[in-house]
Amino acid sequence: MQFFFEVLIGGLLAGVMYALVAIGFVLIYKASGVFNFAQGAMVLFAALTFVSLLERGFPFAWAFFATLASMVALALLIEKVVLRPLVNRPPIILFMATLGLSYLIEGLAQFLWGAQVHGLDLGIADEPLEIRGMLLSQFDLFAAATAAGLVLALSLLFNKTRIGLSLRAVADDPLASMAVGIRLPRIWALVWAVAGFVGLVAGLLWGARLGVQFSLSLVVLKALPVLIIGGFSSIGGAIVGGLIIGAAEKIAEIYLGPIIGSGIENWVPYVLALVFLLVRPAGLFGERAIERV
Amino acid sequence: MRAPTDSVLLRLDDISLSFKGIKAITSISFDVKAGDICGLIGPNGAGKSSLLNVINGVYHPQSGSIRYAGRTRRRMRAHQAAEGGIARTFQNIALFKGMSVLDNVLTGRNLKRRSSWVEQMLRVGRAPREDDAHRLHAEQIIAFLQIHPWRHVLVGTLPYGLQKRVELARALASEPTLLLLDEPMAGMNAQEKAQMSQFIRDINHAFGTTVVLIEHDIGVVMGLCDHVVVLDYGRKIGDGTPAQVRANPAVIAAYLGT
């Protein structure tokens, strides 16, 4: 039983890492109804910029804030060059734009900083910690705490403030939100900047785990099942979805693996997502679209 | 050119608007006096909705100027219009369909929130009292327009007539000086039209709100408006009191028929 809990908690902590990536998607989806394909590229861009600055001798805090500033600049640029000309177009157009954007950002990141693999040490010992006889990764606990803080701040920002209400309004009907005096460009720039910040946090934690390299932009693929289960429009959903995926894949690997062959943790999340699509297409916390025809 | 007087809230001066060479509005000028209900009428495609879009900054005219509340602008921006007290409803209802009636109305109060987002996040400082005041104001407007039974219902699920009223409530929530209504009674039956007319009259009386509205039902317009402007093919062909417009030969020929 103890072993089961160890696996479960290990899985949940890994799930938090998936949720971190998923939150970036949720933010932009909430503000524009668009699945931002470029989120993975933003994670890569952030991590690569940070680690390159670190290697060029910048102190940790300096590198962090310089990277954050570059993410905000990127967000402002995206708003001005890509989003503003596409106001009031159908979501699929914006989706295609983010698809192109992802290649652009990936290319830009590698053009600026090269394509080598960098190691990233955040200064957190990755030694297992023994709690009540269970071995838990110290790094995972740190990641979980970071994610928890991030989620708390974001949900307060988006549920309690004027910005939050504006955000939901913009996602729902851009024209109507213009009429009530919401400045679309500001809201979009803000959301992309916050998504960039979340991408930076995710990039640092994932970069420390996997090394900073091109494949970092593929963590997007892990976020997909998380989003399908949790719902595209809920930050809480992204967390719960992440936890479910993390726990399910580890438990399946340990207990089902020996029966049907190991290595199943790579595809269990997608099977789970498929089941959810059949049973509950809007996800656990997603808003069911109400449309009158 | 008459000199602008204080009682003129909105003055359109020689406004022209075209889309890729197609003229939607050709040198239109008229005044709207503060406290009036002004009706814009004209056949479909006459440029009425475009004119509203010019007034609240969705479209920018190629020439002409807009004088609103004592300030003359070449072009109005949407957020400037909203901050200056211009609110509007749309012909095809532009509500936030995924939000409740109450939240929709609260978006109309959004510009009035003065507390910072940090205060709002933590519910400290100015935020709690301010939030309560806005909530109260929103509830009052909801009661005024008699949509309180549905205030927690998602707007997308409401019938058309009620959605029209929710949109009016949202516009009203911003305490507008100038209210632009694009066909507020389209698709309504006689009884609903009478009710909506009464709401508009009440708003005008109770809050002193100046109203510019587009409406096709001539009976409603003549009964409701102090001032009627008639457009045809993007040009102004009539301007005056309902009685004057009714007697105007150009209007009769173009629009009212014989």
List the main descriptive attributes of the protein structure presented here.
heterodimer, A: 293 residues, mainly alpha, two-stranded antiparallel ribbon, 11 helices, 3% strand, B: 258 residues, alpha/beta, Rossmann fold, 2 domains, four-stranded antiparallel β-sheet, globular
Question: Quick summary of this structure?
Answer:
In chain A, 72% of the residues lie in helices and 3% in strands. With 293 residues, chain A is mainly α.
Account of the protein in words:
The complex is a heterodimer of chains A (293) and B (258). Chain A has eleven helices and two strands. Chain A is an all-alpha fold and 293 residues long. Chain A has one domain. In chain A, a hairpin with a 2-residue loop joins strand 1 and strand 2 (134-137). Chain B is of the alpha/beta class and 258 residues long. In chain B, helix 3 (101-107) packs parallel to helix 6 (160-173) and helix 5 (127-144) packs across helix 6 (160-173). The interface between A and B is medium-sized, with 28 and 34 residues.
Walk me through the topology:
The complex is a heterodimer of chains A (about 290) and B (about 260).
Chain A: H1 2-32, H2 39-55, H3 60-83, H4 91-113, E1 128-131, E2 134-137, H5 138-160, H6 162-172, H7 174-179, H8 184-210, H9 220-230, H10 235-260, H11 268-279
Chain B: E1 8-19, E2 22-33, E3 37-41, H1 48-55, E4 63-68, E5 71-73, H2 78-83, E6 86-89, H3 101-107, H4 117-122, H5 127-144, H6 160-173, E7 178-182, H7 190-207, E8 210-214, H8 218-224, E9 227-232, E10 235-240, H9 242-247, H10 249-256
Parallel strand pairs in B: 3-8, 3-9, 6-7, 7-8
Antiparallel strand pairs in B: 1-2, 1-4, 4-5, 9-10
GO biological process, one term (chain A): amino acid transport
InterPro entries (chain A): ABC_transp_permease, BCAA_transport_permease
Main location (chain A): membrane
